[in-house]
Amino acid sequence: MEQLLALLSSCQTFKNTQLDDLKALASLMNLKHYSSGDILHHEGQVRDSFAVINSGNIDISRVTGHREHKTLITFGRGDSISEGLLVEESYHTTTAICQTAVTIYQISAEKLYSILNTLPQFKVQIIENILKQLLTQLNPTKSSAKVDILELASGKTRTEHDLLGEREVPDYAYFGIQTLRAQDNFYISGEPLHRYPELIFALAQVKKAAAMANADCGVITALQKKSICEACDELLKGKLHQQFTLDMLQGGAGTSTNMNANEVIANRALELMGYQRGDYQHCHPNNHVNASQSTNDAYPTALHLAILHASNYLCEELAMLTKAFEQKAAQFNHIIKMGRTQLQDAVPMTLGQEFQAFSRSINSEVGTLIEGQKALNGVNMGGTAIGTGLNTPKGYSQKVIKYLRESSGINALYLAKDLVEATQSTQGFVIYSAMVKSLAVKLSKICNDLRLLSSGPRAGFGEIRLPAMQPGSSIMPGKVNPVIPEVVNQVCYKVIGNDLTITLASEAGQLQLNVMEPVIAQAMLESIHMLINASVTLRKNCVVGIEANEQQCNDYVEKSIGVVTAVVPVLGYDVATSLAKEALETGQGIVELIRSKGLLDEQQIAEILSPANMTGYPQ
Asked: Cα 595 to chain center, whole Å?
């Protein structure tokens, strides 16, 4: 019982509650054991119990549009599960999956409601605690309104000050006054920083590397380094991401984003050191977390890392899409069809060749993306404000790059040769964005082809059948549309537009800094995320289920005059032309005309018009 009481006392849900009340609750809780991979509850399942984690880690995830689980946060010992049932009887909005072997103390909703109804003060305190936790995770529809709600819910704030004066900050918030001001100033896109977790991961990697380099140079203490690094490690595990509430679009060249990271890391480090949030004399957002840095080197470096991380995910998904097309190419390689140029019959080919071309087209773009990543490997860490390295100790730049390679896992990172040039330049983003645009152009063309090849089903090409994903019309019964290629087309148009945004934002740089980096970050990360989702969607919901209409392909070949090209080397261009003309006028087939005129014998016809001769592929 004592062990359980200690666990409950450490849980934020039961902060400021009475020991006797916790004892009453503990007496009704049961210890449950789960194995790694077990699911505690599914998204959409009714909330029917409450639990506190005793040991192990649990991933809280949400199912994406591709029916895959995306981890939002990882909970560990002392964290509560399903506390939402205390403020509303509803369904789970996430799935809880055991990352490791797990033990939890659990109580049914029925028993919990029963005990809380007998202990009203206990219930009020728990609900207040839960509201604090839930409200810090809300996406502000209006930042100032959010803060008012938080202050009202908690009844407790802390006073922080900056250049402009003092502000009251919710006591349980990990962000501070500068983030608070930026919330008031920038509600623009509705896309918060935590929409792109790789950006938060990258900021954590930058701050961790800086702390380690600063400790080596004697700028911060060993305890400050340890606590900052531990706080960064928690961010890298997905914790506290909801504290990054700022809009992706903001003025100030990314200063607000940098300070959001500095404040969250500083306040979590203070907790780890045993101090209260806001007690900045022990670990300060600027003096310690941001030591030897400026937004102008820390923020663009983090953007480079975030894009490199996201790019790797994109390349992985594209590799799977490439493989899916390859498998279809092998499946369709025996099917002869007509190739087309300018939407007119050209010469025969195999359906497999057509799909192999799709595969290789995408694969070549993967290589282009990997090559484009090199433009982002150079960073300006240590350049500080304008690249001169003001306020950095000797040897800092070399040390921070070494630690940045370790924290990010990107060994190709290097310190730019000219930090002044690197601080004002955004050319790396322009180069990589051009590669992403190239991919979008290729992917859109492939989707155009899929739509054409599947058109019909009876009055179009009809050479392939796409999986039927949904009814296609509110008025035309039986109609099914190629909705997956259509949505991928639209993603590609958006990516192409984002490339222009990045180009214009890069051109807008002035003197020693480009202040437009926030829109570059938003556009670049949005493009990559959409292409990742589009690649998964195209592969799972379309390509793997494509079927060939072999009879239709064969009929087109037999009826087409395009096969006449194959007899040109034997009969000559003029004879072949007359055959084509007559076939068009009479509706007869080319082979039929060759036979009737005795131009070739059956053996010659078989050899010249064989699939191997016409397509170049042995059958």
From this structure: 60
